[in-house]
Design brief:
Number of helices: 35
Shape: extended
Radius of gyration: 51 Å
């Protein structure tokens, strides 16, 4: 094989397979900025220790790669590497991983580095093209499969590209670097370090051009993957080969009109880049609202309906290579062809202002496609018009005389459901007439008009999502429906056949949100807020579309408000600064501004018209002056008018008060009077002038007289013309002032009226807001009341349910949380448990909030009285003849003994139960007689002991009898041979007996508890009651069980004898857990005989007792593991149901029993063995009750 040929990566290999490292001097070692901040993530010390012991050589021999490297023989290498030295090129295998990992990943990391060396050909073993591609793919597989190894791979590549003296090996390492960056980014902890190193290498002018090019590509690829994330699929070898050679792969992207374009992509091309590339190919400038969609055949359609294409929006950050791989897998699995589609993601408000031909054409194609798919239900008139417009846009006017072509176009451009609504002939006549009326329209005009009709529909330009109804408060929506989202709001459709149902405008949608499986809307319907919920996997897309339209509308309103504000500021009008009355006020002010602009324009037109009239009057006056003779004139009127004009001009018309308006009216009347006087005077002057002219014509004379008279007449005429001009000009000024004053008066009146309206509107708005605030406050108060009632009702319902379950034999479980201790506070431990209500307890377990529900939950501040209050009803049950068991479970130091027994100041359940027992007996002493007996047992290190055996009066200390655990015919557990103190007459006497036994119980101090119980304690009180009337005898048993706490030896610090005790305790609790798990999961076999503890409690758990369990937990965060286990343990116990029965014997049964005892005596049985005859061994049980 020719080693100088191309290796499949577009690079030539050196002719010599194994070049020696010492032959090169161009090693580059860019500085690693910020490396010290990552020192805690590297295992430098372990690396140096393993290197000193030759771990790398052993690993190399174990992996069987060519030769075993010798780490210590590299000249100039220090004994202990520093962190910067660790990330320098090495031709030897790693003794351990560079970063800290678990043992499994450390081995994988070492193998990865060996693969990198093999790919680089460091040891002279040049790989073939296929072998190299396969090795690179395996490295990618490790990084993609195990995220924790990704940073390890990046650090190994930094190491092998930094300070590498061999250009060929360095190039190979950068190839791997480029491939890795194009497939997956480093973690955020190492992103800064790696990107800085790559960027520095790309800008290093002293580096080889080929390596600088690879570093630049690596930098660009890392930028893309940092934004888009890692590849979802492993690149195949063809894709890797194309990436190395710099070639592109091709994919076909379709449009809605069945045309297509070829898309070129590589391993790191994203959907966003593909959209930009396609927009450049089709010369589309406004492509921001376009995206790629995956098209596949829809699944689960209605029976009998045609299979349609399902369009799924593709995330902008998805990789094209991943999409193509998924399409191939789908084709191989289901046999269906999927493809990529380029279309608008959604129609937006700004689309209406875009006139780019390609944009309009694509929008038209998409709107036409949606309409023909039946997405836009329309009436018949709109359907006919839209059909005609489509025909004009496609064919122009060429179908006017082609009946067959028009019929085919009718079938093509009309929705089938609408087409079948009336005969074809009527459709042809209607559409053809409309089509001929559009003959003057161009194709582009027809497309624009078509889009306008679509936009005019309430649900026009919507994007549609198929959803399923989950919650419909108004009960009007079908189980399956289609949601349409556009700029107007949300629209609801029935899917088959598609029928418009209802719309909700954007202003009515108060809130919306989504999850991975559903979407909800909180919107106003008929003035009432309702919450609608729908099942959909496109909830995020629905919310994104809705939020986009809301943002567009808000931006549009903001732009209008800003433009109006800038326009108002530019006007510079003075005036008082009124308050801001909201958007209605702003709109009204804008309308007034528009009317003011129109009035100004009309005033300018009137001024122009007045100027033209003045010029016309001047011409007429000039013609009149040629015919007039001499005449006199009076300037008094003109002077008066001028004075009035001056006064009127000096009048301040800017005010709005009544006095100023009255003054303006008076001045206007004065000006009118002056105008009439001036006109009368002008008439008199003109009449006198006419008389003079007539007298001149009548008096003929000689030439000299005529010449002199003509000269005098000319002078007089000239003087009169001057006066006439002055009067005409003054009259025009008066008229102008009059019109201005009238306009200003009218404007002032209008402004005053508008001001009154605005004040009234403000008062109305304030009144409504006040009323609305009162209504909201009342509703909030009502909601709080309803919420409180709902919570009380929920608690009551749960309590009643628990009582029902208790009647069925369910084991009741109470949870109690002890207070945090001072020594725990001193250690910095914090409380990590929350109690939302009296039935629920919660904690944060490994970042997840978890909650458990029990029959009752007592917090750290709950008093002993409150705990006993929920327990004392069981004392009555024991008196009535039931078997009652109360036991406490939890880790060591969680408060079990305090709950069961308490102390002198705060007595627990046992002292309070004894007191309550004798209270009940005293209360019922007139109905029955009672007999109380008691015995105490201790289970220590699997040894059952009698705590009362050495305390018999009058007897010396003796060795305790061997105790056996039996069951009587009623199923009650009994311990023959145990010391029973009988005929206890008072609560004080019974407590003395219990305290005598407790004094012998084994306790010791551990790191978790100063007085830790080292054994299980069972206090049993037997109650025998005889009904005085019926002579019926009821035998009840009341047991208090204080279990030893489960403990972790590491935390409790148990050693020696304490260690053996802890092991025995954990063993017994494990056996109890097995019994509980078997009962909770209804297994066939219940292992009671696995331990003496389970035998003692066999009638309490899964037996015939009324059982109450206290699970005691610690509140601090350091005990969360034990707390979690205890709560799960208690949850399993709550699933167990006992077969509760009352132990009662009638007088007849007692007579028969006495007779049996007589025959036992006659048979010669000793008294202490007579009771043993009827006892049975405690055996394992099956769930059906068989042993």
């Amino acid at each position: 094989m020719d080693q100088s040929a191309e290796n499949g990566f577009g690079h030539k290999e050196p002719s010599t397979p194994g070049s020696m490292m010492t032959g090169f001097t161009d090693a580059r070692s860019p500085a690693l900025e910020g490396l010290d901040s990552h020192s805690d993530k590297f295992q430098l010390d372990a690396f140096n220790r393993a290197r000193a012991s030759g771990g790398g050589a052993k690993m190399g021999r174990f992996l069987n790669f060519g030769r075993s490297p010798k780490i210590a023989e590299t000249p100039g290498t220090p004994d202990n590497l520093q962190l910067d030295d660790l990330l320098l090129f090495s031709e030897d295998s790693l003794p351990v991983s560079l970063l800290k990992h678990n043992p499994d990943n450390q081995g994988r990391a070492v193998k990865m580095f060996q693969s990198v060396l093999q790919y680089m050909g460091v040891h002279g073993e040049m790989l073939g093209a296929m072998q190299a591609l396969e090795l690179a793919q395996k490295l990618l597989h490790q990084g993609l499969k195990r995220v924790e190894l990704r940073d390890e791979l990046y650090m190994q590549l930094v190491k092998q590209t930094r300070g590498n003296p061999n250009p060929s090996a360095r190039t190979k390492a950068w190839q791997l670097f480029y491939l890795t960056a194009a497939t997956m980014p480093p973690s955020k902890d190492f992103m800064g370090l790696v990107s800085e190193y790559v960027h520095t290498s790309a800008q290093d002018q002293e580096e080889l051009p080929e390596i600088r090019e690879l570093a630049g590509k690596t930098w660009q690829a890392m930028r893309r993957t940092a934004k888009a994330g890692q590849r979802r699929t492993l690149p195949d070898m063809q894709e890797i080969d194309a990436l190395f050679k710099g070639t592109k792969q091709n994919a076909v992207v379709y449009f809605l009109d069945e045309t297509f374009e070829e898309l070129q992509y590589d391993a790191s091309t994203t959907v966003m880049e593909a959209v930009e590339q396609l927009a450049g190919q089709i010369k589309l400038e406004n492509y921001q609202t376009f995206s790629l969609f995956g098209v596949a055949k829809s699944k689960g359609g209605e029976p009998g309906q045609p299979v349609t294409d399902e369009h799924t929006l593709v995330d902008d950050n998805r990789f094209i290579a991943d999409l193509m791989y998924e399409f191939k897998q789908q084709k191989a699995k289901e046999g269906s062809n999927s493809k990529l589609l380029f279309k608008k993601r959604m129609f937006r408000e700004t689309d209406e202002t875009i006139t780019e031909p390609q944009f309009v054409n694509l929008s038209y194609i998409q709107a036409q496609h949606d309409y023909l798919q039946g997405q836009y239900p329309v009436i018949k008139e709109d359907a006919a018009q839209m059909c005609a417009l489509q025909m004009q846009a496609e064919y122009g006017p060429t179908l006017a005389n082609d009946a067959e072509g028009m019929e085919a176009a009718l079938e093509k451009y009309m929705v089938k459901q609408i087409l079948n609504s009336r005969p074809r002939q009527e459709w042809m006549a209607d559409v053809s007439s409309r089509y001929r009326a559009l003959s003057q329209f161009s194709k582009d005009d027809a497309r624009i008009q078509y889009l306008r009709i679509i936009r005019s529909l309430p649900y026009g330009n919507s994007i549609f999502f198929t959803v399923k109804r989950i919650e419909d408060p108004i009960g009007l929506l079908p189980p399956k429906l289609i949601l349409g989202i556009n700029k107007r709001g949300v629209h609801f459709f029935r899917p088959v056949p598609k029928e418009y149902l209802h719309s909700a405008e954007l202003r009515d949608i108060m809130q919306f949100g989504s999850s991975s499986q559903a979407v909800f809307f909180k919107m106003r319907v008929a003035g009432v807020l309702h919450i609608f919920q729908f099942e959909s996997k496109q909830g995020e897309d629905i919310c994104m579309a809705l939020q986009t339209h809301i943002n567009d509308i808000m931006m549009k309103r903001y732009s209008k408000a800003k433009a109006a504000q800038e326009g108002g500021d530019g006007g510079g009008g003075g005036g008082g600064g009124g308050g801001d009355f909201g958007p209605k006020y702003q709109a009204h002010v804008g309308e007034l501004q528009r009317q003011l602009d129109e009035a100004r324009a009309a005033l300018e037109a009137k001024e122009q018209q007045l100027a033209e009239l003045s010029e016309e009057r001047q011409v007429m006056a000039d013609e009149l002056s040629m015919l007039k003779g001499m005449g006199g004139g009076g300037g008094g009127g003109a002077g008066g008018a001028g004075s009035a004009a001056a006064e009127l001009a000096a009048l301040n018309l800017s005010g709005g008060d009544a006095a100023a308006m009255k003054a303006v009216e008076q001045r206007i009347n004065a000006v009118l009077a002056e105008k009439a006087a001036a006109e009368a005077k002008l008439a008199r002057v003109e009449a006198a002038h006419a008389e003079q002219m007539s007298s001149i014509k009548a008096a003929g004379g000689g030439a000299a007289v005529g010449a002199a008279a003509a000269a005098v007449t000319a002078a007089a005429v000239k003087e009169k013309e001057t006066k006439i001009n002055e009067l005409i000009e003054e009259l025009g000024n008066k008229e102008m002032l009059l019109s201005e004053a009238q306009a200003q008066l009218e404007s002032t009146k209008n402004q005053r009226k508008e001001l009154d309206d605005l004040r009234e509107m403000k008062e109305d708005v304030e009144r409504r807001e006040k009323a609305q605030a009162e209504v909201i406050a009342q509703q909030a108060k009502r909601l709080e009341e309803l919420d409180s009632l709902y919570r009380d009702e929920a608690l009551m319902r749960k309590k009643i349910f628990n009582q029902m379950e208790d009647m069925k034999g369910k084991i009741r479980v109470y949870c109690r949380v002890r207070p945090i201790l001072q020594m725990e506070k001193d250690r910095g431990q914090v409380e990590a448990i929350v109690i939302p209500d009296e039935l629920t307890i919660g904690l944060n377990w490994k970042g997840t909030k978890k909650e458990w529900s029990f029959d009752s939950v007592f917090g750290p501040t709950t008093h002993q009285d409150r705990v006993f209050e929920d327990t004392k009803h069981l004392i009555q049950s024991a008196v009535d003849g039931f078997n009652v068991c109360i036991f406490a479970y939890g880790q060591t130091g969680s408060g079990k003994t305090f709950t069961i027994y308490g102390n002198d100041k705060l007595p627990g359940l046992t002292p309070r139960g004894v007191t309550e027992l004798y209270k009940v007996m005293d209360r019922d002493s007139g109905k029955a007689s009672f007999r109380i007996s008691c015995y105490l047992l201790e289970l220590y290190c699997d040894d059952l002991s009698d705590l009362l055996s050495d305390h018999k009066k009058g007897e010396k200390m003796h060795k305790a009898n061997r105790l056996e655990i039996k069951k009587d015919p009623k199923g009650l557990v009994t311990v023959p041979g145990a010391t029973v103190v009988d005929n206890i007459s008072s609560s004080r006497e019974l407590m003395d007996v219990i305290e005598m036994g407790l004094s012998r119980r084994r306790v010791s101090s551990t790191e978790m508890n100063r007085e830790s119980s080292r054994s299980h304690l069972i206090i049993t009180i037997c109650v025998e009651s005889t009904n005085l009337q019926t002579q019926t005898v009821a035998r009840g048993k009341l047991s208090f069980v204080d279990l030893a706490g489960s403990e972790r030896v590491k935390k409790s610090g148990s050693v020696g004898e304490q260690l053996k005790e802890a092991q025995a305790i954990n063993k017994s609790l494990a056996a109890l857990g097995n019994v509980i798990a078997a009962l909770a999961t209804e297994q066939g076999h219940i292992p009671y005989r696995d331990h003496k503890l389970t035998m003692l409690m066999s009638d309490s758990i899964g037996g015939t007792a009324k059982t109450l369990m206290f699970v005691n937990v610690s509140p601090v965060d350091s005990n969360l593991d034990e707390t979690q286990n205890s709560l799960q343990y208690a949850t399993r116990v709550s699933c167990i149901r006992n077969d509760v029965s009352k132990h009662e014997n009638s007088s007849e049964m007692l007579r028969l029993k006495r007779q049996i005892d007589h025959w036992k005596e006659q048979a010669g049985l000793p008294p202490h063995k007579r009771e043993y005859v009827d006892l049975e061994e405690v055996a394992d049980h099956k769930q059906n009750g068989d042993q």
